[in-house]
Amino acid sequence: MVKVGLIGAGKMGISHLSILGAHPDVQVVGVCDTSKLVLSALEKYSKFKCYTDYLKMVEKEKPDAVFVATPTKFHFDFVKELLARNIHVFVEKPFCLTEEQGMELTSMTSERNLVNQVGYHNKFVGTFREVKKLVKDGAIGEVNHFMGEAYGPVVTKKKEGTWRSNPSEGGGCLMDYASHVIDLINDILSPITASKGSILKSIYSKRVDDAVYSLLELSDKTTGMLSVNWSDETYRKMSTSITINGDKGKIISDANELKVYFKEDHCPEGYSKGWNVKYVTDLTPQVDFYLRGEEYSAQVDYFINAVIGNVPNNINNFQSAWLTDRAISIIKNQK
Amino acid sequence: MERILYGDNQFFAVNHISDAKSMAQSIKFKSDEAIIRTLDYAIEAGINTFMCTTHDRIARICNVIRANPGKYKDFKIYPCMPYAHKYANAVTELGIQGTIKQYVPGNLFGTMFKGGMAVVSKDFLKIMELLIDAEMKMFKGINTPVIFLQNVITDLLLGLGMVEVLKGFHDYILKKYYAEPGFITMNMPKLLDTLEGAGINNPIICFSMNKVNFRMSGGKDLYEETLKTRKLRAITMQVLGGGAIPPKEALEYISKLPNVESILFGASSKANIENTVHNIRNFDKEKIS
């Protein structure tokens, strides 16, 4: 049994907690939050031990691993304290507020040989995994353009909100929403190294961006575009997609459906010349406990398995999340 | 419960395999008339139960049903609450406390006092009851013999081990609405164990079940075994595996399973509704003979 603690029982934290609570290899040893409302609900109806001070929780319960699902501004301090105590860490996205912070935590994990993961769950979505495989195998040839997109109905009215509407705390569409798409581009293609121009637009929010549009260049000099808007109520929920044009074919994928076009007869197994459509149902392995998408359970499974030593710690590690943080600041500084 | 239940995903752009189809549905069912017309196709095909989310638009559909008592006299609705994305988007924007403030009804002085007291005294079951009442308002005067808790909440509570809250939902639906409580889940065997542990016997559970093992946590073998050996009133959903299985083949598998009381399906055209009903009735006949 892996002893796990959780800091921050908000939307993502509660979801992790439920998945951890149902996990056969996990014993949840403590939950830490500052909301009296949330804590008293957990104390009254769950069996989890609750804390308001995470260091007290760590000292008392001695967890092997801790999930950090607090607002982004707390990530650096909390994760640093945890790593200093040789605790494996899963932290929510985005990783840190600055590149320097992310770099420091990344080097701490390698010095101490600790398992480290960030919650970019799209990497556990079957369609996006297949896109990565196709691109890396050169199935669509040399990439000449990409388009990463995400739209959804988070802020659709003018009003003051929570920390997500505060730019200094990691709020805004770029940090919160676009980070998912940036992370996918980094992973499927190559890390973003430059922005040739960015627009960060406020639509309803007073202090943060609600939409981000940017022309991007990657480390291998591939170029493409980013288009993300969290104030688009024509979407029922977040919809993330990526389009990649290559000289031998084209890929259009979202989290549900993968469409691939091949120009020639020579294609990977299971595909043929012309359009091919595959669904996430064919590409996603079963999970033991389902809450809100296989990918949320799969990322927790992967982390726990990395702690046990069954899998390498190479999906969504701090290093890759740091590259995403870096791309966020590149886009922000180019606007 | 009737053998065939008609679902509402197609009306609200819920499509598990395609965002493009989702948008097409959103366009097709823009008007309430389009929804009503399709519901009427289902009724003509012999289905009298509509299982639907407590989406804002359902309130307007309920108005039409109430306004035509003759036409809809045998019509039943199984409400499924809450409409999760409404709350999920609100939590991202307002936090958990802000969301409760927004959605615990507060217009009437009485409910505000009751709700306000509940938040202060941390009586969470009372907060849940207020939220259930708020969601049930739109169904006033309509026959709702079974009321469901949506899977995202059922499964969240299941993972958190909050059995008392599941039991609280169950008891409140029985007591206040004289209706039978039901639970939607993606983790049927685990939920059944938990509900039985809480003293809820022979529960109504609606779960994903299909030939291709889609969204069946614990696996198809365990699901089939559970149906064969345990006591539950089973409703199967996602029988087409998100569209991955040819409809006839999918329905044959489901119709021939033991101990499945009802089959939930959604379709947006008259022809698809008729075909589905026809196929299930035929496979049921084959099973009997």
Automatic annotation (TrEMBL), chain A:
GO terms for molecular function: nucleotide binding. Residues 128-251 form the GFO/IDH/MocA-like oxidoreductase domain. InterPro entries: Gfo/Idh/MocA-like_OxRdtase_N, Gfo/Idh/MocA_Oxidoreductases, GFO_IDH_MocA-like_dom, NAD(P)-bd_dom_sf. Gene3D superfamilies: Dihydrodipicolinate Reductase, domain 2, NAD(P)-binding Rossmann-like Domain. Residues 2-120 form the Gfo/Idh/MocA-like oxidoreductase N-terminal domain. PANTHER family: BILIVERDIN REDUCTASE A (PTHR43377:SF1). This is Oxidoreductase. It comes from Salegentibacter salarius. The lineage of its organism: Bacteria, Pseudomonadati, Bacteroidota, Flavobacteriia, Flavobacteriales.
UniProtKB/TrEMBL annotation, chain B:
It comes from the Bacteria. This is Uncharacterized protein. It comes from Salegentibacter salarius. The lineage of its organism: Bacteria, Pseudomonadati, Bacteroidota, Flavobacteriia, Flavobacteriales.
